[in-house]
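User: What would this chain look like folded?
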Amino acid sequence: MPLFMERSILDLPLIYINGGKRGFLVGVHPHDILRILKPTVVTVAIE
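Assistant: Here's the prediction, encoded as structure tokens.
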């Protein structure tokens, strides 16, 4: 399945994703997501 990541996310110190149950969030550095999942980085946000 293709995975896309908005380029501006890379400027954030952390992003929070669902950890698998309600109320459980996991903070992840955006560059770790880039390194592990290898998404296609796109620019779709309006500046």
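Helices lie at 30-37. If you want, I can go into more detail on any region.
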